[in-house]
TrEMBL record:
Localization of this protein: Cytoplasm
UniProt keyword annotations, A-Z: Cytoplasm, FAD, Flavoprotein, FMN, Nucleotide-binding, Oxidoreductase
InterPro entries hit by this protein: FAD-dep_OxRdtase, FAD/NAD-bd_sf, Rhodanese-like_dom, SoxB
A Pfam family it matches: DAO
GO BP: any one term: tetrahydrofolate metabolic process
Catalytic reaction list: sarcosine + (6S)-5,6,7,8-tetrahydrofolate + O2 = (6R)-5,10-methylene-5,6,7,8-tetrahydrofolate + glycine + H2O2; sarcosine + O2 + H2O = formaldehyde + glycine + H2O2
One GO cellular component term: cytoplasm
Protein's name in the database: Sarcosine oxidase subunit beta
Family statement: Belongs to the SoxB family.
One of the record's GO molecular function terms: nucleotide binding
Superkingdom of origin: Bacteria
Rhodanese domain ranges (all copies): 35-79
The EC number(s) this enzyme carries: 1.5.3.24
């Protein structure tokens, strides 16, 4: 892999940018690998990268039914934060957030990590109390975040509606100064390029139809490009996880819904932090291009449609216009949806399974972009060593049988 740098940029500029190397190869799948990863989203690609980098496992294929990063990784609103409530969640989300700090240097790709600060508004007394509790928990875990007053909120976000007589007045906010955003495609592309450079085969347009097992051991996968044998198979397919795991005879404790977002026409800079308004249920940040990136709710029924729906659009716009009245006459450019994988406790599953050599990483639901580096790091360790990484251990499938849930749904209201 030729390194990207200011010098390579200058060198290529002299040649009218005609000599850039392809970012990753497009190999034909081999008939056998040590590890097959199903799904080239951020989590699958990060897993492949850390398998190669940290564990020297390079005979790896990442199989993707569409194009890499075309699932939820390329559809999210890019919020990165680690101020979760439960100890187990804080550990993995803070590992991920801290890896984001140096990710661009690590994978030699500008992932545009922007720790611009993130506010979670408190618009009811209940929310204020809940956030104070999270603040105490985060402080114990050494996560840098703090409660701020309504006046500080207004200073950080001048466009926020601070009228005291509105339906949900602002009572304060929970602020994580080094939370923020990243460029989602670049995260996928950066990991893909760096994994490819270490010998990982990324095979796009290769749909896995079935996980093959013989007794209690995985044998490989049946795909649209033939059978591929593998000693280990790692499933990282977000909203499609239940379907693919069912082919191995495993029923997953999760459901799939379509989560939606939209983006406005570009306007001049008006907000340089990320704001989440969980009570009215909407959140917003401004992209480098000036577009307002707006996220909201999911369809209230299970489905596999990757598109927006009018009720979700209406609900989100209502919430955001109430919070930021200046956007009321803004034109929306587009909206979209992604199929997210929700567990009952709104926490992920990073786990071995009862089938030898079969591993699963899913259930990130509405909030798994921020966790990509941490999740890939601990999942790669789990797959390489065939035992859960200590940070991954609490997120095992067994927690649903043991009643050891890691409840983030109540804690966060929305778990983005
Ligand atoms: C609208 C929206 C907003 C969001 N906002 C945020 C946010 O602000 N912050 C945040 O942290 N998270 C957010 N998320 C959640 C986040 O995007 C996901 O949790 C995360 O991207 C999941 O990554 P992944 O790699 O597991 O899944 P994906 O990126 O979906 O990758 C899975 C891949 O598996 C492939 N696949 C599926 N089945 C098969 C098969 N049978 N064979 C081969 N390949 C297959 C898919 O094509 C896909 O590319 C949001 C999600 C959406 C939809």
């Amino acid at each position: 892999m030729k390194r990207y740098s200011i010098f390579s940029l200058a060198r290529n500029a002299f040649n009218y940018h005609k000599d850039w190397q392809r970012a990753w190869r497009s190999p034909e799948p081999k008939s056998e690998y040590d590890v097959v990863i199903i799904g080239a989203g951020g989590h699958g690609l990060a897993t492949a990268y850390y398998l190669a980098k940290e564990h020297g496992v390079t005979n790896v294929a990442v199989l993707e039914k569409g194009w890499l990063g075309g699932g939820n990784t390329g559809r999210n609103t890019t919020i990165i934060r680690s101020n979760y409530l439960q100890d187990e969640s804080m550990a993995i989300y803070e590992l991920a957030r801290s890896l984001y700090e140096d990710l661009a240097q690590d994978v030699n790709f500008n992932v545009m990590f922007s720790p611009r600060g993130l506010l979670m508004l408190c618009q009811t007394e209940h929310e204020l109390r809940a956030m104070k509790r999270t603040d105490h928990a985060n402080r114990l875990a050494g996560i840098e975040a703090r409660m701020i007053s309504p006046a500080e909120v207004k200073t950080l976000v001048p466009i926020v509606n601070d009228a005291p007589d509105c339906r949900y007045p602002i009572l304060g906010a929970y602020y994580q100064p080094r939370g923020g955003t990243g460029r989602h495609d670049a995260v996928a592309w950066g990991y893909a390029r760096a994994a490819d450079a270490r010998g990982v085969d990324i095979v796009q347009n290769c749909e896995v139809f079935k996980i093959l097992r013989e007794g209690d051991r995985v044998q490989g996968v049946e795909t649209s490009r033939g059978t591929i044998r593998a000693k280990k198979v790692a499933v990282v397919t977000s909203g499609n996880t239940s379907v693919i795991m069912e082919t191995a005879g495993l029923r997953m404790p999760m459901e799939s819904v379509c989560l939606q977002a939209m983006v406005s026409e570009p306007i001049k800079p008006c907000m340089d932090v990320v704001v989440m308004a969980n009570t009215v249920h909407g959140y917003m940040s401004q992209s480098d291009k000036g577009e307002l990136v707006i996220g909201g709710g999911a369809d209230p029924y299970n489905n596999y449609s990757q598109r927006g729906s009018f009720p979700a659009l209406e609900h989100t716009v209502t919430a955001l216009v109430e919070t930021f009245p200046i956007i009321s006459r803004l034109r929306m450019l587009r909206m979209w949806g992604g199929v997210v994988d929700m567990t009952g406790d709104r926490s992920p599953i990073i786990s071995k399974t009862d089938v030898g050599g079969l591993y699963v990483n899913a259930g990130w639901g509405t909030g798994g972009f921020k966790s990509i580096p941490g999740s890939g790091f601990v999942f790669a360790d789990t797959v390489a060593n065939d035992r859960p990484h200590p940070i991954a251990e609490p997120f095992g499938l067994n927690r649903f049988m043991e009643g050891r849930l890691i409840d983030e749904s109540v804690a966060a209201a929305v778990a983005h």
